[in-house]
Amino acid sequence: MPASRRNGRDTSGDDTGGGDAVEFLILGSGMAGLGAGVAARRHGRDSLILEAGDEPGGLCRSVEVLGCEFDYGPKIVIEQDAENCKDLLGFLEDNHEAYPMAESAYLSEYGLVGFPLQRHLVDLPEAERDRIIADLEAQRATPRRVESYADWLVNGYGRYFCEKVLFPYEEKKWQIPLADMDYQWALSRPVRVDMDEVYAGARTKLPPNRTYYYPREGSISTLTRRLVEHSGPIEVGREVTEVDPVGKYVVAGGRRYHYEHLISSIPLDRMVRITAGMEDAADPRGLLDWLGIRVFNLVFDGDRDLDGTAIYFPEREFVFRRVSVVGNLCPALDRPGRTPISVEISLDPSGGAPPADEQLDRVLRDLRKVPQFAALGDLLGHRVLEIEHAYPMQRNHMRAHVDDLHARFARFGIRACGRGGRFDYCNSDVAFEQGKRAVHDALAQARAHAQAPDPAPAFDPATPSARNQ
């Protein structure tokens, strides 16, 4: 275990066991945990964040390879339509830039096409797009009953297009049958295409309809560092091993921390396992599992003029599902004389992934099947990241189970936030907002409780006043 530090100061020798309770104890220092810390400080409240790792940030961190920076979670951005976008950008002050969301998909038969492809059918031959639209219209005229993500996709975009593009991609991403997946999560995701856009995009090239922000200088860690400055004390190297909601304390790093309000952004399945009183809330059906990813951050020799920002690969002949041309996606990460590329692969939840070095050879072979990547220079260096808790699996019946767990935690006064705590496939900006909202809700509930009149004493027939009535 790394030495425990509080905002950079070694705290491994501090004696806090049995001390005064912190008003807001926050578990996890990803975007949700930092959002909670920021909100507590804005309200003038005492807070402490406990982080199991050796630095804060969660997926909003960066690593360096030969002077090239790569974000820990590929394609971490701040989207313009997020309600708290202005708040996040305020931490960057004037060090941010707006970019159009212009992503691509790669199909061997056609090359790079617009993503999502259903919004850019004009990139396909006329006969192909006519077939897609005719099949889509027929499907919408006689929709199937929606019981899974697969049903939802077919009703929305037709069976032909699903079998050609959407099913292969989504199965490559999620690594489980789409018939086993819920669809509700997709209703709130940013990438949505309505029928008017499908028809318009089949006739003409549509411009990007979304914008994202990124630091003008630095990586996503630039934002994280600014958030850390405003989120109160953080102790790293503090993995939580026990939560006692009755005694109102947690044990982390072998030490006890008392609290008044507890906010958790750590993975919900882990929170259930370590919380006293939740022993009967086990997950026998395996509804709370995670999709892990392996990210290859590659640095190639030379300046290469490449097309695309984030490029999606639905075809099964490619082992990866997404390749990010880092310098195009985030110009601040461009480096002279170097071409940084980030490659993302979903890991089979049943295990059996090949060794990273062996898989790197396959990644390089598959990259060079794409004409523009075949011209890349020599690979100068690389770093492989294994992200165990990348995406909460959106299985059928999972959401009702999660809602029940949250209701039980709420009875203990424990609030969950973020992708881990809510078991919600949300972006970082949404996770930040959830962390802030958890603090606001806790304070509102405390105020309401303080203002409520004292309950009348219970009637006891043994008291003298009762006997004399």
**Low-confidence runs:** 8-18, 458-469
Counted by DSSP, the helix tally is 15
Number of domains: 3
Oligomeric state: single chain
Tell me the helix content: 25-40%
Protein name: FAD-binding protein
Region (Disordered): 445-469
Organism: Actinomadura harenae
GO molecular function: flavin adenine dinucleotide binding; UDP-galactopyranose mutase activity
List the helices and strands and how they pair.
Elements: E1 5-6, E2 9-10, E3 22-27, H1 31-42, E4 47-50, E5 62-65, E6 68-71, E7 78-79, H2 85-92, E8 97-100, E9 103-107, E10 111-115, H3 126-141, H4 149-157, H5 159-174, H6 195-203, E11 211-214, H7 220-229, E12 234-236, E13 240-244, E14 249-252, E15 255-264, H8 268-274, E16 290-301, E17 310-312, E18 322-325, H9 326-329, E19 338-346, H10 356-367, H11 371-374, E20 379-392, H12 398-411, E21 414-416, H13 418-421, H14 428-451, H15 464-467
Parallel strand pairs: 3-4, 3-15, 4-12, 9-17, 15-21
Antiparallel strand pairs: 1-2, 1-12, 5-6, 7-11, 8-11, 9-10, 13-14, 14-15, 16-19, 16-20, 17-18, 18-19
Helix pairs in contact: 1-14, 3-4, 4-5
Can you describe this structure in just a few lines?
With 469 residues, the chain is α+β, with helices and mostly antiparallel strands.
Structural commentary:
By secondary structure, the chain is of the alpha+beta class. The protein has 3 domains: 5-59 and 219-286 and 396-451, 3-Layer(bba) Sandwich (FAD/NAD(P)-binding domain); 118-206, no CATH class; 290-392, Polyamine Oxidase, Chain A, domain 2 (Alpha-Beta Complex), CATH 3.90.660.20. The chain is 33% helix and 23% strand. The protein has 15 helices and 21 strands. Strands 1, 2, 3, 4, 12, 13, 14, 15 and 21 form a 9-stranded mixed beta sheet that branches. Strand 1 (5-6) and strand 2 (9-10) form a beta hairpin. Helix 1 packs across helix 14 (428-451) and helix 4 (149-157) packs antiparallel against helix 5 (159-174). The longest helix is centred in the last third of the chain and has 24 residues, at 428-451. The protein is globular and about 75 Å long. It starts with a strand and ends with a helix. Mean pLDDT is 90; it is low at 8-18 and 458-469. Residues 445-469 are annotated as: Disordered. GO terms for molecular function: flavin adenine dinucleotide binding; UDP-galactopyranose mutase activity. This is FAD-binding protein. It comes from Actinomadura harenae.
